[in-house]
Amino acid sequence: MHEHLSRLRAAAAAEIADAATEEALEAIRLRYLGRKGELNLLLRGLGALPPAIRPAMGALANTVKEEIAGALEARGTALGAETLMRAAGEQIDVTAPACRRPLGHVHPLRAAEDEIVDIFLSLGFDVAEGPEVEDDFHNFEALNIPADHPARDMHDTLYVEPGTNVLLRTHTSPVQIRVMRETQPPLRVVMPGTVYRRDDPDATHSPVFQQIEGLMVGEHVSFAELKGVLALFLQRLFGPATQLRFRPSFFPFTEPSAEVDMTCMRCGGAGESGCRVCKGSGWLEILGCGMVHPNVFRAVGYDPERVQGFAFGLGIDRIAMLQRGIEDLRLFYENDVRFLEQC
Q: Which pLDDT tens digit goes with each residue over 45-91?
């Protein structure tokens, strides 16, 4: 046993001296001094030795254990000092300016949407949202759009599966249907959201764009109220000098219907020949509107003899383009940080 202890002492000393990391040092400690380490295994064998030499071997084993423990501690201290020295050579200048992580901001389309919604909230409107994947009833049938209408054609509408009535909504009007089927009048609500149409992208068209529609229904809602609401909305959005004109138009879900123009925000409606916004006309087409068609009320269970209402819709993308002087719609969807940081 004496020779075994001597070899163990020498081997442990050599391994401790070569240990380069604290992890390696801990592995050595467990191998020699752990509960199942080599030294403990030797100590368990002391009982088999002759009584005459047992005390001497026990004392030697304890001495070896203390020497190994001392060597481990000393090497651990040395390794800690080496770590501190390396850190001293890699000091951080705490007075240097910090590296700031760039912060994002609201996308210009979402910012335009928030501004529009805030105006209507101040006018007493609620906000409603609906699914972007719709069915034929909510997107077409309930809105008085007949089966042979061009909008139902696959060349105009993005169907999830050909031959089915599941599609990506072409406007936010289906939310109007859902709201009216769940709510009794009177009601005032605006419905923002993303809509989809089969369009080739160019400077003014995109297969994905943002829209917001409004709906007001009650017993005595009139076209005069429609004009008042839209005039107040556009004046708050573009300035108090903004004027409107209504041109007769056609939409399947409203009757009578109108296109709404507003005075050019750049030339103030003067119709300057060099105005690149209104092309010299002094007017900008901004939205469509009208009184809700009786067939729409019948589809949602309202009595068109008892209630009436108006609806309107506009493109959020166009509003954002006008506000920021942007001439290409595609810039909003390309996710170019250089462009978005300027908005």
A: 666 677 777 777 777 778 878 888 888 888 888 877 777 776 666 66
Q: Which two tokens stand for residue 65?
A: 């254990």
Question: Residue 167 is encoded by which pair of tokens?
Answer: 């599609």
**Nearest to residue 156, comparing CAs of 207, 205, 198, 194?**
198
- 193 closest CA partner among 315, 292, 300, 340: 315
Q: Which of these, 82, 314, 93, lies nearest to 211 by C-alpha position?
A: 314
Q: In what order do the strands lie in the sheet with 244-251?
A: 126-127, 187-196, 208-218, 308-315, 283-292, 254-263, 244-251
Q: Three-class SS of residue 195? A: strand
DSSP conformational letter for 159: B
Taking only the tens place, the pLDDT of each residue in 2-55 is 677 778 788 888 888 888 888 888 888 888 777 777 777 777 766 667 777 777
pTM passes above 0.70: no
The continuous run of DSSP H or E covering 294 comes out as: helix 294-300
How many angstroms separate the CA atoms of 241 and 36, rounded? 90
Structure tokens belonging to residue 275:
């105005």
**DSSP H/E element including 251:** strand 244-251
254: which 2 tokens? 């409203």
Whether the CB-CB separation of 187 and 217 falls below 8 Å is answered with yes
Task: Report strand pairing: 308-315 vs 208-218.
Answer: antiparallel
CA distances from 103 to 100, 106, 109 (A): 9, 10, 18
